[in-house]
Write a structure and sequence with these properties.
The chain is α/β, with parallel strands linked by helices. The protein contains 15 helices and ten strands. The protein has a single domain (20-353), classed as TIM Barrel, CATH 3.20.20.70. Helices cover 44% and strands 13% of the residues. The structure holds iron/sulfur cluster.
């Protein structure tokens, strides 16, 4: 262990096996190692953005076991917004200060390709300054299969219609044996990475998530991080890594044992250490709870996502994020936890210190 600790202190890259061993380290010692990297990069800054999540449809052809959002799972209320509704929500969010709309949906085979693409075009026409973060790699894979288009063709259409960056969703956990059990039929790990690689090759940025705390093991988490690190070495387009804590309500996935806060914090810390080439690590408070996200700032995380305003996917599965958080509340929570809130744009340019 001493050898691994020395490598981390010297900022040498650690291997997958060494990263796995870090789970055996005492929590606060591991936290200190991750925190020293965080402080070296960002000091006490904690980033967030003023954003609005829009989830335009919950009608889905896929059957992910962990999903509580799709109307084909346990959610009895199917809906599909009109393009006009999406534009209205974006306009209203913009008037309240949102700089970004984060648009992700289910895989709706009835809505049509143009519904997906036109909504971005119309939001951009109405609000040229707003940053559109839209379509996970899983949605791109769905559109490609459903409408017989190559990934490049879907990506070209997205860029033409004003999408600025890709969210990190749909990655779940890369281990294919676990994927088979929790989200069979959804984009493969290989194709998730390929789509991001193609997106990065256009000079565009994206994020990467990892859904953990269900039936995966520690090895799967560490392997997931290493595969992201390998792609980032090649393409350099990931801004942020977002470990998402599995939400347990209203779904079909049977999980015997839920993670302790300690295991969650260790996973954040290990991701900060392993992902030496991805600038930001986000504690997405919608899945970790705001209290644990505030503590995660001392375990390597430098980003707490944003005010959200409204969120339908994680909250359907039990997260306390349906109505987001008021800006003032959010800023005060960060300040009171001893960090400096910094409002950022979607590409991590600093907009305002509080
Ligand atoms: S997680 Fe997404 S792709 Fe999977 S069933 Fe739910 S909405 Fe569909």
């Amino acid at each position: 262990m001493e050898n691994i600790i020395n490598k981390i202190k010297n900022r040498d890259r650690i291997t997958q096996e060494e990263a796995l061993k870090l789970y055996d380290l005492e929590l606060l010692e591991l936290g200190d190692l991750a925190n020293s990297i965080r402080e070296e990069k960002f000091g006490k800054k904690s980033y967030f953005n003023v954003n609005r999540h829009i989830n335009p449809t919950n009608v889905c052809k896929d059957i992910c076991k962990f999903c509580a959002y799709s109307a084909n799972r346990k959610n009895p209320n199917p809906y599909t917004m009109s393009t006009e509704e999406i534009v209205q929500i974006a306009k209203s969010a913009y008037s309240k200060g949102a700089k970004e709309v984060h648009i992700v949906s289910a895989h709706n085979p009835e809505a049509g390709l143009n519904w997906y693409i036109d909504s971005f075009k119309k939001v951009k026409e109405a609000l040229p300054d707003i940053h559109i973060k839209a379509l996970t790699a899983a949605e791109i894979n769905f559109l490609s299969q459903e409408y017989h288009l190559s990934y490049d063709e879907v990506i070209d259409k997205m860029i033409e219609s004003g999408v600025d960056s890709l969210p990190g969703g749909g990655a779940e956990i890369f281990a294919e044996d676990v994927r088979d059990k929790i989200c069979k039929g959804k984009v493969s790990s290989r194709d998730w990475l390929l789509i991001h690689k193609k997106w990065h090759s256009r000079g565009k940025k994206s994020n990467a998530t990892m859904l953990f705390g269900h039936i995966e093991g520690r090895e799967d988490r560490v392997n997931h991080m290493i595969r992201l690190r390998e792609l980032q070495d090649e393409s350099g387009g990931f801004n942020c890594f977002i470990p998402l804590v599995y939400q347990r309500d209203n779904n079909y996935l049977k999980v015997d044992k839920f993670l302790t806060a300690q295991e969650i914090l260790k996973t954040y810390a290990i991701s900060r250490i392993v992902l030496d080439n991805i600038p930001h690590i986000k504690a997405y408070w919608a899945t970790s709870t705001i209290n644990l996200a505030l503590i995660a700032q001392e375990f390597g995380c430098d980003d707490l996502d944003g005010t959200i305003q409204k969120e339908s996917i994680q909250s359907a599965a039990g997260a306390n994020s349906a109505n987001g958080l008021e800006l003032e509340t959010f800023v005060n929570l960060i300040k009171n936890s001893g960090f400096d809130p910094v409002e950022r744009d979607s590409l991590y340019n600093e907009l305002k210190r509080y």
